[in-house]
Queue: 4 jobs
Job 1
Amino acid sequence: MRATPSCSLLLASLTLPFAAAQHPRSATDLDRPAAIPVAESHRRLERVLVDEPGDGRIWALAESYKAAFDARGFEYVPFFGADAPANYPLRFALRAVTIAAEPLALPAEASVSRGDLRVTLARGPVDEIYLLGLDEVEQRFVVRCDRPGDLTVSIEVTTGLDPAQSNDGIAWRNDQGTVSYGAAFVVDGVRRQPITTERDGNLLRLHVPAAMRRGTELVIDPVIRSHPQFNVSQGSIYSDPDIAVLHPGGRYLIAYERAFSSRDSDIVSELHDAQGFIPGSLAAVEATTAVHVRPRVAAVKAAARFLVVSQQDSSSTSTSEVWGRALDGNTGAVATNLIRLSDASPIAQNHSPDVGGDPGQGLGPHPWCVAWIRQNSATDADVVARVFDQHLNTVALQATVVADLPNGRFANVAVSSSNANGTWATPRWALVYELQTTATNHDLHAATVDLNAQVVTPSGGIDSFAANTRFPCVSSPATDLAIPGGPHFLVTFQDLTTQEARARLLGATLRAAMSPPNLTRSFGLGLTELQNETDGCRFAITSRSGSVATVATFGATTSGMVLMEAPQTLAGSPAQVRLCGAVGGGGDLVDYGIAYQDQATPATIRWTLYEGRQPGSGFQRRIMGCGGLGIQEGGQPFLGARIEFALSNVNAFQGGFLVGGPLAAAPILCAACPLGVDPTGPLVGVVATASLAVPIPCDYGLLGARLAVQGFSSTGGPCPGGLRFSDTIDFTIR
């Protein structure tokens, strides 16, 4: 147990920060509910995700298929399981529509349009309409022609699947599954009359006898479905989540991989708040047939947007590129096209991206910083970075080379989630990465990059261990630590020589700012899944040992780390744990967000909010006011935060506030106006003001201290001299 500081220590620390405030700030960002239990993310798609990523096609992602539409036709890709060795697409192209054996004049290319879950390919007198369901695609042909005679629709189907038959029509199959093309019908109002569908090589012909045609418009309606050969576990396809938060409002974006086959992985995102999933926010960040992996997320507050970056792998050319897409922070909807972020060059590999955001507001640039590894050869890999605005425009034509040594093999770059814009006069991101020095040894290096993608602190080594140090994570800048040389970045990493978790606190110029702690020996943290983030004063750190993952909060001093909240266990069998904090999205001291893959069967994505503070509530009001003097509190009594008080019904105001230790209601001057602040202990009086703002220092010795605040006025009260007191507000520093 930590000793509770005395009120004397607390008041000595708080006397100087007391200051009058004209208007108490709203507590929107600070008055958060307690951390919710671990929750499951949306494992099953609640709706078909329809998207236009910018490649000229409309894409749809559903539970059992994905589909693409363009001027030439329609491609259907069945989902045969995340372990299927490849995709098995079917390309449907309308080749002819004949009436009485005479073809209708159709344009070579269709005009493509979409409306919610409906995609239309307009070809003059014929519309191909696709109605997108979670488990099927309904294909409709609407033919407008009053010429009499039998009608035939001819569709060319190109696929690597083998022809087969199904119970209700034509099918294609292999050892992974079957795609069925159901019996076609002529639709006349509510009546559905079956028609004949024939297969002739790679052509499908739908025949409508003249007798079935009524009026000038005819609707033909078959349905396409996927049937995997094996029982597909939907939970097994979700992995590698990342999480970021945007303020005000506390909206958390979780992005993760959704494996479609062994050669096709999509990126899906969803938006949460403190109450859970925000309905309708599920979005397809990337839903094409390309392989996208390793999603990473950051927020820019001024634009109210998230950026999701990912690595695109090409199996045909063995190359990798970095792509990104901005999402609306209020709805989770995509806000830009999917754009290649890595610059055009003959370099074969651009991989392992990470991204940092900007919490600032107002005028001036508020960009994202995207960094990745540029692989020049097997023995030469650099760290590069680019800065992008809210529309994904970049400030430079080429990426900035952050770290480059002859035959230097850099890897695993991590970017701080925030650059402290708005609270730091020279905002910048910290980039931390590995340098492989031998086949069995890696050292940690770091640099800082500013808003113009310029390197401020050049790349250099930051660890002094004669050990194999790997897999770094770097926090946002901690702006409130009582340590010279800040703001500070905390770096956590693995010491694979001793099999221990370690940390390093760096100043603004990346100089060591404290004795490096051993997180495993001192606090029992696991070796893997080391993530850390700050709220400006504290640091939350996650770690994993075997199937057990924990999260804890720490303070930082020049002599090492201070445990503030003992490690808490995450539910299930966590892996790929990711962490975010409010300062990364421009918020105040609210909950951290945690997302991870739960490897329990079936595997899924889980998330939770983590407060990481000593037990207790915010403010407690004792009803003891007299004479109608009111008091209103705001903020939360957290280290590094600010609490605020305002008096109401003050009349001709003469008075102020008393701040000290709590006292049971005592009628000091008269029975009608009891005093709630102890006059015998340390006491601070703030006079001639009706509002008060109290910044709480980032002093870890204040944890657990109890304080009381009461307003007073010397006019209009029932006690001698017209004295009045407000209710008393008690709180404990957490």
Job 2
Amino acid sequence: MNALMILALCLPSTATAGSRLDKWTGAVGEARIADVVEVPLTMYRLDYPCVKVKFAADSEKEYLFRLDLGSNGIQVSPDVVKDLGLSKKTRNKNRWISFGRKGDKIKWKAGGKVETSRIDTLVVGGLTLDDVVVEVRAIEQDPTLTPAGVLGVGALGIPTAVLPSAGVVRFAPADKADALLGDVPGGTILPFPRVESRIVKTYMGKQFHRGWAGVVTAKVAGQDAALGISTARSMGTLSSALPVGDVPRWHEGDVDVVWVPVSLGSVELPEGWYRHQGLSFVPPEDWHGSIGYNILREFDIAVDPTGGRIALARITDVKETPGEPVVLDTLAKKQAEAEKEPPKDEKAEKAARKGKAATLDRKATLLLAGGQVKEAVAAAQEATSLDPDPCSYWKHLGQALTTDAQFEEAGQAFQKGLDRYAAWTALPKEQREEIQAMDEEERAGASVQPQDLDACMDVAAWLAQIHILGGRAAEASRLYEAHADLDWALPLQTGIGLIREARFDEAQGPLRQALNLAAPAGAADASAAARLALAVVYEQAGDFPTALDLWNREVGTFAYDPLATAFYGRLLEASEGLPAATQGLRALARNFPDSAPARLALAELSSRGGKPDEATAALQEARSLLVRETRLQPRLGQAWAYLAWTEASAGRLDEARKAATRALETKPSNEYAWAALARVEAACGNLDAATRAWEKARAFGVSNVLFSSLEKPAPPSPAAPPAAVPESGPKK
């Protein structure tokens, strides 16, 4: 039986427990729209399509919401609920979760918690949503740029199109569905039946299955499969019960990540990565996973959720869309409103000053994330002058100053933040609780002020970076001895600092501790960087097998880093010789078909091995991959930085300079962009400019152990010109 037919048989035909459960994940009483409306498409962190949403209860506040074409629900973060003063309702009946395993059987019990809230009206451009029930749920988020929620098209119940080629999102009334699907030029229309949330019985017991706006019948490695689509998840998932054959794969923890071809009817999707894992939370016979936005970003997509149709059309270029945080507008309005009414007394004045400082601190982090470095420094400095108590304000000032290459001033800011953090954590727990229980006026008289531990717990690591940049690894080591138990990132930075001073034996202890420390939510995992640093230690000791083993444990991360792939080639060459190293990099390039860095490393080894044709071909492949990436994600600074690195390797200096400049516009602290610019300036004979760029690359790459060995660029030898990439490659 066709997988899509099986799904249809599972769908409830009347209002059942499934449709009732859908209300727990978000629902709309009425969607009011007079005609087709168009709103700007905003790309959050370049990975997800978003729209700006206003709440009628406070029309001055505007938030960024992900738009998920594959979801039946509406989610709002707890921060928004608190900000708007909404009430919450807790539900937990008929929600099933796993609580233990006995032998091969999983035990299940009623439990978990679903929190919902009701909002009178939401407004998205010309679309008005009335009587909205939202699920209050933490949104997967970056701690700086925070989407406030997720709008699922299945919950909206109206035809919706995400059109990256035009940089817009369109909504339409139900009777204009045909016109909206026609907005996808040359699109293929496929069935897209809805799946309700429901509780189902499987051989493992009762399970809660969140619904989807629809599913498509797909071919995965030549086999039929029923897949959902998700524009709010970066990577799709395939059931491990679905065999995919001998395809490129790597391990992410205990999960295989596989590179497979998928087709939807006559629509051939680009090959891409999917997590290949067990889907124990859904019946395996009628569900095979989902397609993520890493694949769907190459399409204009329109969905008719009530008519059960989806239209897709492949695109070659996208219109660049705004990526600056919507929160900046909200903060500006909030600050302007606060300044309209002067405080009436000293207490109100102090509260107003603290409130303004908090607004400026938030503004500083958003400006820095958006690449507005000077403005971020100014906002952070004003925040600390208005309220010097929070250590997080000093940390954010230090981060802004670091990005502005004011390293001495940054160190002073980090030290002030660390002093406050250490003073607070040094107090006995009972005393901290006593201070926190005080009213605001009493707390102001306390000698030590409460601190946000989550926001401050890496301030010592930031200070250690400044010491390392100044050649003071001993100072970083002293920080490690004093504060390693308070700062999850400090052992890693200490180990890297010791390696930069060639104190390899001393680096092992901090690095091994870094492997065992879990990063807080929203922070980058330090384990991969720690393994890379340990691999450098073992390389120096001549223990190449151990170094290679450490590298291979994080292959899914290192295969996309130019210096890490070059280091891999170096390890192979040292242990097995140049021919074997070249062969190993060929295998790496095959296993990671979308990795430009693997091809860059292969080009370098092939050139040294006397194979200029292979080197030129590898450079061309790398360039083609990166040009495609910058076309599809024009605001992805890392792709521009790697393209600059590639163009510099190929001797295309003008193109390299343009790409590096574009990368630095997005992220002024991009170490690879500065390194590429250093190579360009050196090749042009501008040695002073090359030295300045090289020093910035080493400074901003202080957390990457391989940047400590970055060679100072020098003019190329006339006898050994760089390999040229043919002009027949993709054009920008």
Job 3
Amino acid sequence: MRHTCFLPPSDWLPEIAPTTRMNDAFIRGVVHDPTSRRMGGVAGHAGLFTCARDLAIFARMMIGKGEVDGVRILQSETVEWMTSVQTPETLDAKRGLGWDIDSPYSSPRGRHFPIGSYGHTGWTGTSLWIVPQTDTFLIFLSNRNHPTEEGSVVALRRTIATIAAESIKGYLNDSSESVLNGIDVLQLEAFRRLKALKIGLITNHTGHDRTRRSTIDLLHTEEKIELVSLFSPEHGIRGQLDSKVEDGVDIKTGLPIHSLYGQHRKPQPEQLNGLDALVFDIQDIGCRFYTYISTMGLAMEAAAEAGLEFHVLDRLNPINGMDVEGPVLDGETDFVGFHPIPIRHGMTVGELALMFRDEKKLALDLHIVPLRHWSREQSLDASAQPWTSPSPNMRNLKEAWLYPGIGILETTLLSVGRGTDTPFEVIGAPFIDDLEFAGALNALKMPGIAFTPVQFTPKASVFKNELCQGVYISILNRSRVRPVALGIQMALTLHKLYPEAWDTQGLNRLLRHEVSRRMIESDAAFERVRATWQEAFVLFKQRRAAFLLY
């Protein structure tokens, strides 16, 4: 590495890109960071100048476990230590020593480079990402500060990394790197399944392909299809509403939007006049009381009554299709409990559609555009599909993972973090002692979970503008987390500690298992509560098996 140093000599300056503008002139060879400049240009965090060739040598050395071109620079154990996770298990962001592994700053991973690869980003937009699994490295040198510091290259970094991975021969042969949702498959098939149909599309902002091209736009511009109207679920066509949704017109396409979360939750006969088919493309999160699957079920009923085809563009279950948990809905069905399934059902929307049709005995011409290359144990972050927040308070995959348990509790006198930056990751109330509550929950030693005492003030929803005490939930090992068990054990702990203050009147609104509610209020042991689920649970697993597509 002959062109890497602090304080580069003057004869290098013609080859060095300007770093910033000072005193009406662009400077070269002087560090951009003002703190490093005050330290004479030599600091541990800034001031090192290099070039792509030298960085490539360095990356090869790292891939070579400390050796490059027959010369050992670092011991292999040192490289392994530097590039393995060194952050505490309680932190979601994963970092090595000087290296980013999996954090909000991991945009240089793109959509395909796996967790276990590592890299580093710089203030001016530079990045280096190393993928030892495939002996690959990606160098990106830029200056986002020109002409002002308002520039950003985050999206560009991600795009370049994605293109780089896809350009490596054979890189995407592994099924874990090439999952296709129904809309992706539909495009590969040149939309032939919908050819010559007049369509009503049930979708929202999560309806897009793996490059985030909107399903609305894809169908609207496809000459073989006539997209006639749009139907909006809860949260609106753009996913930004937390209240009643009104009918409207899509600004971009001019198509009418019929609300399915306003005066009606089922498409009306007059809205279906002239259509040949309804098409459903919305990302579910794998939880019974998340209402998008109820919207699908009601639309299926309307399509059957009108004699229309119904097409589901299938999407993976983001919290995996293996794990099934919780009580099967007991009692009457409604919009937050459309069908007798467990809270965590472990199915895709296409599989649920097959179950709804057969078990509700709908005379429906149902078509599923299936996933490709998905295996049931895969969650969304192992699929190369992008995350899009499906509703305003479902902002990341961790929250989706916790929601089947924490969601049970939000119909009681508790804040579940709505109105904070971490909905479903914090839970609390003014009557809770955070130290006491966290201690009691940690004493249960729930697998894969830890609790930190916190205080927070929600800006909306329950206990708006009131100081709450409670816990922040950390996931230590996601594969071991059982979110419904988490929710039930939190309920048992709340009732034991605060039986007078915690109002459980609404507990069964989403739980939908009256026996469990009564046992919680009688301070029963968790294993006794769970035992009451088993008979219906075993029968559900048998029912479910008949509809699994993958």
Job 4
Amino acid sequence: MFKIQSALSSRLIALSAAAALTFAIAACGDSDPPKGDTTSDAVKRDGFSDTTSDGTPSETSVDLPKADTTKDAPPPDTAPDAGVEAGAEAGQEASVDATADTGPDTTADGPTPDTTNDGPQPDQPLFMISGTVTQFGGPNSGTDVYIRLYDSNDPTRILDHIAERRINVISGQNVGTEAFTFTVPNGTYYLRAFRDDGGRIGAPDGQPTLITDAQSRSLAVTVNGANSTGNSLSLVAAGNTTDFYSNFNVKTVNIGDARPPIGDVNNIRIAGPGRCGGFIMSIGVERNGTTSALTPPRVRMPNGTNVTLLDDGGCNDTVLDNSNSSYDTNANDNTFSYGVPTPQASSVGNYALFYHQSTDDFIHIEIDNIASIVELSRQRVLTSPTGAARNTTLSPTLTWQSVPNATYYDVEISSTDGQYDNFNDATRLRTTTSYTPSPNLLDDKCYQVTIRATDADPNTGDVDAESFAVAGYFCTDVDGAQSITLSGSLNNNTAVGGPIQIYVNANEFFRASVRLATNATTWTASVLAGAAGDGSIEAFIDTAGSMTFATPENRRLGLTLTGTDFSSTATLNLALNPGPTLNQPGPWATVTSIRPTLSWNDYNNVANRPTGAWSYLLTVGDANNSQLARIVLPSTTQSFDMSNLPARTAWFDLVSLATCESNGGTFSVAATGQPVCTGAGDTPSQTVLVAGTLYDWQVSVIECDFSQFQPPATGNLLPCLRNVISTGVVYGTSELRGVMTP
């Protein structure tokens, strides 16, 4: 016998006589096809299974396969002795996969030290596993039958076969009786076979596919000092055609600002661990049928680790736990997913879905290759119609700015009151940047337009990148009887350039959006008239390119007005000023006490601060936008310590003022600085937070002179603060920052 090097001392796979001298590895679902190998004979690797953390055999980290397209290779050698003798006489050494045996095992249970020995090993007796494969049913249009050998008797093992035979057959005819042979040392093995009729996108892909490929059940084989002959594999159709996973897709998704999952628990808004949002690599499948026949869907990542897709609702409003990175939005809805935050170049490669269906003892392997990481912009500017002017036609042509690297746009349009949608319009999927909705729009309605961008046809193609846009708004009013026009000057005092985004809400359902150039000095919006004092407006410099005020960079460069009268045409001059910069706690931080200290940088150092007297307004709220504390502080203060409250003469409780007067009381301030509400009840600001609760906080600059606060008299401060309450007008505001109590 000839000497053979192996990565394991006692287990070796030798190649039959028809094999080429050296083979590249081709493990099922976990390796590339043999590079430079044009035969259809066996291929091998030197790794054997270990056990993952969940107790199942691991699949050793190697590249994933693509179908071998060679059709004219010689048939497998069925003479057991000749295979060993030919190898010995030629002095052949079995090839060892350098990738598999020179680095650590990177399966799902974490790296394992490589303890193999690549030095010369004692001669081992080699024996043949031989048999036949025959087809008795199932699709027969494929031209290739694959027989795979596994070094285990576990039929749920799917990836990492150790050798493979490929047999060329005639399309449209059942497989007759075809022979196969493998050369192995003593051990326990099992065999599987499948006819490659179709794959991930219809064409054969060199992988076993449920339910389009005829397959054999697994067959256990034991080799103990003698050849194993007469092994018979029968290809049949799937008897269970209802249990499988579908719509496997791996893609980059840009879904907006990163944030932890937030929801209601016992009527309290809280945040869960992890984050749900941002730019992620999204992996997902949908389940058809019942759970009992299917193992959980698992995916081998490009780095060799195996992950399990989950249907746990980790990002919904009740579970609030994305620590397993499921990014799943609804629990138990038969949609399974997994996400990788902020994918990098290392996320490029093959992703292999694999699972077992127990009714037929069939397996499925499906590979999605991501060739590059693409982050599609969320910015989708609606250029026509817009909220800048009244829309006088019920059949407008919508146009928008193109998105680099996007080839398809899925347009969703609906009325803001929910009375119109065109989701069944087959023409709304566009390859151009225009769309005319069908049927016609309704008159005297405001519409929301959201455009999803993808790099391929989402209905028939393999989407590798998508992003979701922030909605744009416009209103229809053919005769103009219901519309109002809002306009005024626009001053950018921030010294920061960028397009200016404005959202106008005349009421809950009447909305318009306007996008202005960087150097715009005036603004105009047309919207349906709302009730008096029921309107609001957001205006900001879109430095983040997100078109949303919620982005921290944008919130610092914008303004919000509430309680505005948009019942008739009005002039409203807007000024965008820089906001304060928050210091501690950091974004989405968990504080150590329910009486935290909130701090910010000194706004006196800002060049474009107000020319007259001004004060800070500290606002603490919750995720329901309830303002639990609104505390006015002098311009010389840069922090508020809830565990050591300053003297009441050093801060003013705006919540107490607002609730007292809204309840019909008369507000005043005692000499001690304590608020006094006569004739009604008031609610003071919350200065002790609730444990385990998510809060948000921000600091604004208001043009009210705190020095005029002299208890028991309030001087001119009180009228100024009443104006802040009624209009929401502030000079500048910081980002809105989340904080979690312990």
